[in-house]
Amino acid sequence: MYRYDEFDAAYVRERVAQFRDQTQRRIDGRLTEDEYKPLRLQNGLYLQLHAYMLRVAIPYGTLSSRQMRALAEIAERWDRGYGHFTTRQNIQFNWTRLSDVGDILDHLAAVEMHAIQTSGNCIRNVTADHFAGAAADEIEDPRPTAELIRQWSTAHPEFAFLPRKFKVAVTGSPNDRAVTRSHDIGLRMLRDANGAPGYEVIVGGGMGRTPMVGKVMRGFLPRAELLPYLEAILRVYNLHGRRDNKYKARIKILVHETGEAEIREQVEAEFRSILANGGAAHLPGEAELARIAAYFAPPALPERSAVSDREEDARTFDPVFAAWAEVNTTPHGVAGYAIATVSLKAIGASPGDATASQMRALADMADRYSQGELRISHEQNVILPHVARDDLPALHAALLREELAEANSGLISDIIACPGLDYCALATARSIPIAQDISRRFSDGPRARAIGEFRIKISGCINACGHHHMGHVGILGLEKAGVESYQITLGGDHTENAAIGERVGPGLGAEEVGPAIERLVDAYLDLRASPEERFVDVCRRLGLAPFKAAIYREDKRDAA
Amino acid sequence: MARSFVPSIVSANDLMIGDVVYLDASGGWTRSLAEAAVAHDAETAERLAALADQPGAVVGPYLADVALDGPVPRPLHFREAFRASGPSHRPDLKRHSE
After folding, report:
1. Chain A interface residues facing chain B, Cβ-Cβ under 8 Å?
2. Which residues on chain B are in Cβ contact (under 8 Å) with A423?
3. B14 within a domain of the structure (yes/no)
4. The organism sits in which domain of life (chain A) (predicted)?
5. What are the structural domains of chain A?
6. Which of B19, B55, B90 is opposite residue A33, by nearest beta carbon?
7. Residue A50 and residue B15: Cβ atoms within 8 Å?
8. Helical H runs in B6-41?
């Protein structure tokens, strides 16, 4: 885990004191709301439908057990006993009182956390593969890179007022779990022919009202050149990004309107200029990169047999455990260990929500079974990254006690959903109740496992915080003629094979969505060539027409 | 043709707590829709909007259309209805369920 140095610690403390003072001045009337609003947003404090919401960054999704306990305490002491983990590896507290904000931020600072740059037109929390440092398929841990970018981008004076917000994601695995192709900048770690480390740099991806798959700006960028190259991209964007229209202000629009080749030329020219004008002198040297990387050194895991008799016995005699282990564990890079995904998608629950008691229990489990480490995934689940296979049955038993043992990772009830109109001031429709309804319809575990990988993603407005464009099934809640209306998109993919889903037809009423998804799934089960052929694969093979017919009951309408 | 006047109330978020409040007839703020001051005409709506300009007490006051078909003003837009009732996904988070 990265630990704050004296500069980090002092900076965060100063910012808390500064914001505490700004908040006090708003309360006693020395600041107007117009003056205060940009200040609170720079500190992650939003005013939502029912209360203030504080968005706290979880850099690259990594948490220590100590930090998780602090989040639990905040939820309990200053909120309503729960927190909401988001698709950008943040946590949101939905019931923050203005007079408590300073105390909450102090509490966060004590465990090296903050809410800075979780809002506003700046470089936001840098996200990463939630299996970082543990996955068997990893080329390299992406977190030292993400931390380097965090340090570079925090309070960077040149990039504090960009045309629009700016999001960066990093993956160290060829299997992209960080959605890099839908970020403003996505970085995929690579090795060149000589084994030297570097990045594929993807620029101009995004969701929102104009979804775009990012373009490869550089096929291979040597690791040492990362920061000046990022600086070049940001400078081109800062100079030419549209500030006249917020809907066209993201870098994806700049890349699209200017053209990929022209943007690449501008970025490369700026990059050369930075290096020629002394920028190279500011490159982090190998020693600094090594210093940061040392914080993410793999834990010293005791040697274990690759096969655990204890796990195998439990799989044989305990079908509930067997189902969970099959669906919610992933191969670890070290023999005898597994990565455990703890689902925050219990049937009928609100996706991504965890109670204070669950957070504390997860912290205890992390200490006992996972080297004190946790991760938050963009899929709104919690990861225990280093669990001995021998310990999986005991971990599962502990999860059962906390109602955290849903065996549905990657299945149809593992739904991403933004807070929607139940909380969000920008939302046009609710997301969570739609997720709850679908989840209940597919509560039967064997059926859900028979359906296989099935990614449903729900957004409550066009801003697409619920990643609906990249869902195998995307659901977008809008307002139509004074009622909630839900558009369905099919065929999206958030992985290295990134694809934007295609809208199939007119919106459905809230009560029509669940039944439509059931018909869609029935059609898929009829059409798939084998149980291994996922829904999104069938979409690619056959197109969307049969699924559109199922959603809108076109066969029945034709027959009538 | 001019739009006929729709009865309205003034809603805002409380400065300190951030929750939903309504302007009452005395120029104070209430959490009860039943106590909200209702404008039956444009002139009253304008007067209530002016009265609601209290930056030390609330954030973002605005007029919201209501129907007067029951004992309590009923917000016409579903967004306002959700603001009035609280989050819908957990019964314990409903307004007035604390």
Report:
1. 26-27, 29, 32-33, 47-52, 80, 96-99, 350, 421-423, 430, 432-433, 436, 479, 482-484
2. 87
3. yes
4. Bacteria
5. 6-110 (3.90.480.20), 142-294 (3.30.413.10), 309-401 (3.90.480.20), 417-559 (3.30.413.10)
6. B55
7. no
8. none
Q: What is the DSSP string of A355-386?
A: EHHHHHHHHHHHHHHSTTEEEE-TTS-EEEEE
Question: Who among B16, B89, B93 is closest to A99 (CB)?
Answer: B16
The model's pTM: 0.96
What is the extent of the structural domain holding B28? 8-93
Q: Tokens for B29, please give them.
A: 């703020």
Query: ∠ at Cα A451 (A450, A453), nearest 5°?
Result: 115
Q: Contact, A75 vs A355, CB < 8 A?
A: yes
Q: Per residue of chain A (560 residues), give pLDDT as tens.
A: 788 888 899 999 999 999 999 999 999 999 999 999 999 999 999 999 999 999 999 999 999 999 999 999 999 999 999 999 999 999 999 999 999 999 999 999 999 999 999 999 999 999 999 999 999 999 999 999 999 999 999 999 999 999 999 999 999 999 999 999 999 999 999 999 999 999 999 999 999 999 999 999 999 999 999 999 999 999 999 999 999 999 999 999 999 999 999 999 999 999 999 999 987 767 788 888 899 999 999 999 999 999 999 999 999 999 999 999 999 999 999 999 999 999 999 999 999 999 999 999 999 999 999 999 999 999 999 999 999 999 999 999 999 999 999 999 999 999 999 999 999 999 999 999 999 999 999 999 999 999 999 999 999 999 999 999 999 999 999 999 999 999 999 999 999 999 999 999 999 999 999 999 999 999 999 999 999 999 999 999 999 999 999 999 975 555 44
Between CA B70 and CA B76, with CA B73 as vertex, the angle to 5 degrees is 105
Closest partner residue to B87 (CB to CB) among A27, A99, A423 is A423
Is position B2 within any domain? Answer: no
Q: Is residue B48 part of a domain?
A: yes
Residue among B15, B77, B88 minimizing CB distance to A422: B88
> β-strands A82-85, A90-96: how paired?
antiparallel
Q: Which of A27, A33, A49 to mutate to test the interface with B (most CBs of B within 10 A)?
A: A49
Contact B78 A33 (CB under 8 A): no
Residues 6+ apart with CB under 8 A from A405: A320, A324, A343, A396, A399
Which residues touch A384 (CB under 8 Å, ≥6 apart)?
A: A339, A340, A342, A362, A365, A366, A369, A370, A373, A374, A395
B59/A33 touch (CB, cutoff 8 Å), yes or no: yes
Residue B1 located in a structural domain = no
Q: Which two tokens stand for residue A558?
A: 């034709």
Q: In this structure, are residues A58 and A91 in contact, taking their beta carbons and an 8 Å threshold?
A: yes
State whether B93 and A48 contact (CB < 8 Å): no
* Chain-chain contact of B18 with A33 (C-beta, under 8 angstroms): no
Tokens found for residue A363: 């912290």
3-class secondary structure per residue, A443-471: CCHHHHHHHCCCCEEEECCCCCCCCHHHC
Q: Does B27 touch chain A (CB under 8 A)?
A: no
